[in-house]
Specification:
Blueprint: H1 6-25, H2 29-50, E1 60-71, E2 82-93, E3 96-109, E4 112-129, E5 136-151, E6 154-171, E7 176-189, E8 192-208
Antiparallel strand pairs: 1-2, 1-8, 2-3, 3-4, 4-5, 5-6, 6-7, 7-8
Length: 303
């Protein structure tokens, strides 16, 4: 490959920067790239929703990674560029959690394509999920941390940054989800307030318990009847059935269909002290000798 002339390289970069600035003035890159990114994210999320499953319940750790597009305020003098976003979060339950956040953007000055600048944000944030056990959910975030801009020939600028955002999550499986989010961050650079928008999409992996303390097959977050006895049949809310109303739950009841009002033993079978096959509550002749044939009232049949 022939050597690249330094002056020619600078001229080419300068021409590129001028062309980019001209296109940006016409709204081209700042519309097309984010629009394409957003369309791609929405398409992926819609496909994910078609095969989604409810997420895991109980305490969990979540690891997220994604990228997107950053919209910087004009006074910073840098171009909008791709943002890379990484998070680690702890959620005591699926409806709320805390996250450690790291964002990184490599960009360059609007006045010179040779002046590379890097934007970083590191902080902690809270997450509030409005539909924690649904296949698709809307969530809100808030964060605080340190934002800084670095450049090879300029001092690093640092600032406290606070932010808030809204997002959507689509569960691909119980432990894998697609995430789409729009965040706003406010910091102070060069003595002026700086507002930055970050549109990002990515994947979240969940690790932890899918808790079901009473073992009835309905996880704790959905279970409306905690401590169901082992073996009892339950509905979708985790509440047991008792079809014959004898106070012995279905699944444990060895004599389903017991007539109303009859006293039963712990297995749900009607009490029959003399063993003649007629429940005590209906037996007009208790203490019938064993082995005797009886009528429907529990009395011996005369021959």
């Amino acid at each position: 490959m022939p050597p690249i002339d330094g002056a020619h390289g600078i001229e080419s970069r300068t021409q590129f920067g001028a062309a980019h600035a001209s296109a940006q003035a016409r709204g081209c890159p700042t519309v097309r790239r984010p629009a394409a990114f957003l369309l791609g994210c929405l398409s992926a999320c819609l496909l994910a929703a078609g095969t989604a499953a409810a997420q895991i319940d109980g305490r969990q750790w979540r690891v997220s990674y994604g990228n997107g597009w950053t919209f910087f305020q004009d006074h910073l003098g840098v171009h909008d560029r791709t943002v890379y976003d990484a998070r680690i979060g702890f959620h005591p339950d699926p409806s709320r959690g805390v996250e450690a956040i790291l964002d990184h953007v490599t960009t360059y000055r609007s006045t010179s394509p040779l002046m590379t600048r890097r934007y970083y944000f590191a902080g902690v944030g809270g997450v509030l999920d409005f539909l924690p056990v649904s296949r698709a959910s809307i969530f809100a975030t808030g964060d605080i941390g340190i934002a800084w801009l670095t450049e090879a020939i300029e001092p690093t600028e640092r600032s406290i940054s606070v932010g808030a955002g809204l997002g959507a999550r689509f569960n691909l499986s119980r432990r894998v989800a697609a995430r789409l989010e729009l965040r706003h961050q406010q910091a102070t650079f060069a003595g002026e307030p700086s507002h930055t928008l970050l549109l990002s999409g990515g994947v979240t992996l969940a690790f932890g318990s899918d808790a079901d303390d009473d073992g009835d097959g309905v996880t704790n977050m959905r279970d409306r009847c905690a401590d169901t006895p082992a073996g009892a049949a339950v509905d979708a809310r985790g509440c047991p059935y008792d079809a014959d109303g004898d106070a012995v739950l279905d699944g444990i009841d060895r004599c389903p269909g017991t007539a109303a009002g009859l006293a039963v033993d712990p297995q749900g079978c009607a009490l029959d002290a003399d063993g003649d096959g007629v429940a005590d509550a209906l037996d007009l002749c208790p203490n019938t000798p064993r082995g005797r044939s009886v009528d429907a009232h529990g009395c011996p049949i005369a021959w």
